[in-house]
Design a protein that fits this description.
Helicase, Ruva Protein, domain 3; Zinc Finger, Delta Prime, domain 3; two-stranded parallel sheet; Rossmann fold; 3 domains; 7 strands; five-stranded parallel β-sheet; 329 residues
Length: 329
């Protein structure tokens, strides 16, 4: 039952498409990767998914009696069965031990997938790690999210433009399930159109808003304070969250500071990859970096700490606090 050493999501997905193993233990912080791997298992292992041949249980509440009944049940119509167990990190010790003993025997016609959000130390987890059928997937770094937006676009047979990708990340952050939901909406919205553009994202996801954080950061990076504040005022009038704007501005400043720090240490290609900046935007960002070489970042961090505390307080005008912060940059 041994598999090769723990692969990336894409290589494990390719492996599943070629041959199904009897057991998979997926530790997935995002729930995105396990969702897509299970879809591949279903396509490869089952001709048609039914309530009889695909069974899902909570690892935390399933009883041993129920397990034995399910596994020993014989069906003339569905000899192959897929068992999916959620919350595998919360599995009871005796249940985990029962599974680890079961999997020491040869398993035919069945496939078991266990999904956990974090590591556990129970017998099943240890067994799967030893047998090399335990795979761990962490949340992507901010610099990697653009790659997954592109991947999801391809999954829905769409090409997402660089600006559209940035706007999507701005709107949904780094949550891959949320991003996939938004991209699915967009793919339905554009219909047969192969490309998802900046205008599509704005039309569908930004409703009537005429300004975006992307525009604000562009003005900020080019040291155009008056235009930065005008866009900020209008975004706040249109109902954008102060916390969201502050978070995105702080993220941009951190990237700018890192780029300044690395200017004499790393090549532009290295910096671009480390920060996850799309090639489409690199020339503009590099220009902003070169304009920021003498910026007082240490003072910015002190002001950011103060602003973060105030924005999380109650009974305070958060709009004025945010405007004051941006005005100091």
């Amino acid at each position: 039952m041994k598999n090769m050493a723990s692969p990336s999501f894409e290589s494990l997905r390719d492996r599943i498409q070629k041959k199904i193993g009897p057991v998979y233990f997926l530790i997935d912080e995002t729930q995105f990767f396990s969702k897509h791997l299970i879809l591949e298992v279903k396509k490869k292992f089952l001709k048609k998914v039914t309530s009889e041949n695909c069974r899902t249980f909570s690892s935390e509440t399933i009883s041993l009696e129920t397990l034995e009944e399910e596994i020993n049940a014989i069906s003339l119509f569905t000899p192959q069965k897929l068992f999916i167990f959620t919350d595998a990190d919360r599995m009871l010790k005796n249940t985990a031990l029962w599974f680890s003993e079961l999997f020491k025997k040869e398993i035919k016609e069945y496939c078991f997938v266990f999904v956990a959000s974090k590591k556990s130390s129970h017998a099943l987890s240890r067994f799967c790690e030893k047998e090399e059928c335990l795979f761990e997937f962490k949340k992507p770094y901010e610099s990697q999210v653009g790659h997954w937006i592109e991947w999801i676009g391809k999954y829905y047979q769409k090409t997402i433009s660089p600006v559209a990708s940035v706007l999507l990340q701005e709107k949904a952050g780094g949550d891959l399930l949320v991003l996939e939901s938004e991209i699915e909406k967009l793919s339905i919205y554009v219909g047969d159109q192969k490309n998802i553009t900046e205008e599509d994202v704005k039309d569908l996801l930004y409703e009537t808003r005429t300004h975006s954080i992307f525009e604000l950061l562009d003005y900020l990076g080019n040291r155009k304070k008056d235009k930065t504040l005008i866009v900020l005022y209008k975004m706040l009038e249109e109902g954008e969250s102060e916390i969201f704007i502050f978070t995105m501005v702080l993220r941009y400043l951190r990237n700018l500071w890192k780029a300044v720090e690395w200017k004499s240490q790393k090549s532009d290609v290295e910096v671009q990859k480390l920060l996850g900046i799309h090639p489409f935007f690199w020339n503009e960002f590099r220009k902003q970096r070169d304009q920021a070489l003498k910026l007082p970042f240490e003072r910015y961090w002190e002001k950011a700490l103060e602003t973060d505390h105030l924005l999380k307080s109650v009974n305070i005008n958060k709009k004025d606090i945010l405007i004051n912060f941006v005005n100091t940059l």
